[in-house]
Design brief:
Order of helices and strands: HEHEHEHEHHEEHHE
Helix content: 25-40%
Protein name: PIG-L deacetylase family protein
Structural class: alpha/beta
InterPro entries: GlcNAc_PI_deacetylase-related (IPR003737), LmbE-like_dom_sf (IPR024078)
CATH architecture: 3-Layer(aba) Sandwich
Keywords: Zinc
CATH superfamily: LmbE-like
Radius of gyration: 18 Å
Shape: globular
Number of strands: 7
């Protein structure tokens, strides 16, 4: 049984976006967040590095984010419209031109049969080499990154990734419509509890794009300057954490994003084990 896949590979040091592309063989990536701005906080600089390297990225949002923001006088429908515009503009900064809304209710996301089916459909349409999404496990060190919608999003994505998307008998209506089953190779889950972080990506060259993307979400920023300082501080800390095992040629300071990398399928994978 020792030849079976390792579901929690550990990457020593810091991978560049190109290193991530080469090591995982990435051509197409599907990024899935619960709300507008989720993927921008969790993975924007990495996604910008992937698109710069020629990877096609599709961004999917489970909800329109109508329950977000600080303007209690704004109608939820107007909030949803505004946040969609903000996300489109943020995606453009990152080199993403394909943004999909899945129509779940903000604040009430559950990993239901119906939601998993929507995700399976999108996966079969886009056929990504890797899926970037939220982590399904709560991080007690900072509860804010474990919003219930984030956890539900991560759980739905994981359930869709295995076994639903690769089972032709699951959601048979999709198979009948020509959306054939296929196997997801990799998951990169943002917002993971620290003990599950396995991969850190050096995003020094694209950190400014992350900040530019986050600035587009102006309806969510009570204090934009404080937000930017916090995000940059977090990325510096992640970079520093990766330096312990980094090569001697690695710069002494920079920015990084971190993920729990899960191999779903590789050449050694045996279904059901």
């Amino acid at each position: 049984m020792s030849s079976l896949k390792m579901t929690q590979p550990t990457t020593t040091g810091l991978l560049t976006p190109k290193g991530l592309i080469d090591s995982l063989g990435l051509q197409r990536v599907l990024a899935i967040g619960a709300h507008p701005d989720d993927m921008d906080f969790g993975a924007a600089a990495t996604l910008a590095g992937l698109t710069a390297g020629g990877v096609h990225v599709t961004l999917a949002l489970l909800t329109a984010g109508d329950a977000g923001g600080f303007d209690t006088e704004r109608d939820p429908e107007e909030t949803a419209r505004l946040r969609h515009v903000e996300q489109q503009e943020a995606a453009e900064v990152l080199g993403i031109d394909d943004v999909v809304l899945l129509g779940e209710k903000d604040g009430f996301v559950e990993p239901s049969y119906e939601l998993i089916g929507k995700i399976v459909k999108l996966m079969r349409q886009t056929r990504p080499d890797a899926v970037v999404s939220m982590h399904p496990e709560r991080a007690w060190d900072r509860l804010q990154k474990s919003h219930p919608d984030h956890l539900a999003c991560g759980e739905a994505v994981v359930r869709a990734s295995y076994p639903a998307v690769e089972n032709p008998f699951a959601y048979s209506e999709l198979h009948a419509a020509g959306l054939e089953a296929f196997k997801i190779k990799h998951l990169l889950l943002a917002g993971a509890p620290q003990h599950l972080v396995t991969t850190r990506v050096d995003v020094t060259e694209t950190a400014e794009k992350k900040i530019q993307a986050l600035r587009r979400h102006f309806s969510q920023m009570r204090d934009p300057q404080k937000m930017e300082q916090y995000v940059l501080e977090q990325m510096r800390g992640i970079y520093a954490a990766g330096l312990a095992d980094a090569s001697a040629t690695t710069a002494p300071s920079g920015y990084a994003e971190e993920f729990h990398h899960v191999v779903v399928n590789d050449p050694a994978t045996i279904s059901g084990f």
